[in-house]
Specification:
Blueprint lengths: L1 H12 L12 E7 L1 E2 L2 E2 L3 H12 L4 E7 L4 H12 L4 E7 L40 H14 L7 E5 L9 H5 L5 H9 L4 H11 L15 H26 L4 E6 L12 H7 L2 E4 L11 H11 L13 H11 L5 E2 L2 E3 L11 H13 L4 E5 L7 H5 L4
Parallel strand pairs: 1-4, 1-11, 4-5, 5-6, 6-7, 7-8, 8-9, 10-11
Antiparallel strand pairs: 2-3
């Protein structure tokens, strides 16, 4: 089992050697400040919480968003910059922008917008086409108009993928619009042939061998191309921000699952100052590794090569090793929030995860996914 998990990760990412362990981890805090037009907290509440956490652990950066409140960001930016801590705007790219943008939705390879969601799960937002140039232009124009004048040192790019198995197979076999079809064709993949092959062999399209490689040759070429199509579009967005002297971080699925949603770590790392792989082993909801893996198995029950997954420390180490060779900084996301049903985390789990990250020699970790709601005991666990 461990051999399969290891290979599933490294087939897509390649080998690498971890750097020397750091004496002290640096942390990135995430603040979910609210939806575009509905704040979750007051400015005073956020600053008070940040002040408490900064007084206990080494904080490198704060990711905050994405409600629109100029005065709030001015005040928080002043607070953070006085402490030499950078502030990044939490920017959703290919989803959760309906309230501010009129972008074109992504469609599956049958030309339909995937039902969101097939399994009646909480991830109920729509994904947009990742290659439509107008979609990207709309997003960047919005940032330039509404956010560029605020004291952000960078952006944290979220939703930089296609839909996942939350929408079943239709969520993963997308986007199939004319823009994306042209990009795939340029890489030697005909989406009409992909559709025909899937309709012929069904779940077997997703079967993998003992090394984590797709057994169907067209499936292998499709997912390799998908990684390029989606990740190169993300690279365009990242390069736009870099051209303005801004730092860029990226929110990624774990290496085990990233290929299914079009995230090619090797391509993305070239365009990122740091990446945040979501290594959520105790999250029983979308983005949780075990949870999404079971959705995969539920969506393609007759596919082979997907045995039971144990998300223990050995598994965590395999995921860290899979990205160790990347040149950008690596701040794996570890959930320190607590929810009895969806995220039953403990101080021991947090300590175990941070020790593995430190042993891997990474820059630090992102304290996910909202420091405003993290139990104090979980923050104190970082001190041990």
């Amino acid at each position: 089992m461990k051999r399969l998990v290891f290979f599933l990760a490294i087939v897509w990412l390649g080998w690498g050697c971890a750097t020397k362990p750091q004496a002290e981890l640096g942390y990135i805090l995430q603040v979910s400040s609210g939806d575009w037009y509905r704040p979750n907290y007051t400015t005073q509440q956020i600053i008070a919480r940040l002040d408490t956490v900064i007084g206990q652990v080494k904080v490198d950066k704060v990711i905050i968003g994405w409600n629109l409140d100029d005065e709030m960001y001015q005040a928080i930016g002043e607070f953070l910059h006085a402490r030499n801590i950078s502030m990044l705007f939490w920017l959703p790219v290919f989803a959760e922008t309906e309230a501010i943008l009129d972008n074109t939705p992504a469609v599956d390879i049958w030309g339909q917008v995937p039902s969101n969601s097939q399994w009646n799960l909480p991830e109920g937002f729509r994904f947009n086409c990742p290659t439509n140039p107008q979609n990207i232009a709309n997003l960047l124009t919005f940032y330039e108009t509404h956010l560029a004048y605020l004291p952000f040192d960078g952006v944290f790019l979220d939703r930089i993928r296609t839909q996942s198995f939350v929408c079943g197979v239709q969520g993963v076999l997308n986007c199939g619009c004319e823009h994306c079809a042209a990009r795939y064709a340029g890489l030697g993949v005909d989406l009409a042939q992909v559709r025909e092959r899937y309709e012929q062999i069904g779940d077997a399209f997703f079967s993998v061998n003992d090394h984590g490689q797709f057994t169907d040759s067209l499936a292998a070429r499709y997912f390799e191309a998908k990684g390029k199509v989606v990740s190169e579009s993300v690279g365009q967005v990242a390069d736009w921000f870099h051209s303005r002297g801004m730092e860029v971080g990226m929110d990624l699925f774990a290496p085990l699952l990233a290929p299914y949603v079009g995230q090619d770590y090797t391509i993305l790392a070239v365009h990122a100052d740091f990446i945040k792989p979501m290594l959520y082993r105790q999250t029983h909801a979308p983005a949780g590794i075990g949870y999404d893996y079971e959705l995969l198995r539920k969506s393609v029950p007759n596919a082979t090569g997907y045995p039971d997954l144990v998300t223990d420390v050995a598994f965590l180490n395999s995921q860290l090793q899979a990205m160790a060779h990347l040149a950008c900084k690596k701040y794996p996301g570890i959930e320190i929030n607590y929810h009895e049903q969806f995220a039953p985390t403990t101080p021991e789990y947090i300590q175990e995860s941070m020790q593995a990250i430190q042993n891997a020699g990474f820059s630090g970790a992102v304290l996910s996914w909202n420091i405003m709601e993290a139990p104090d005991a979980h923050v104190r666990a970082l001190l041990h």
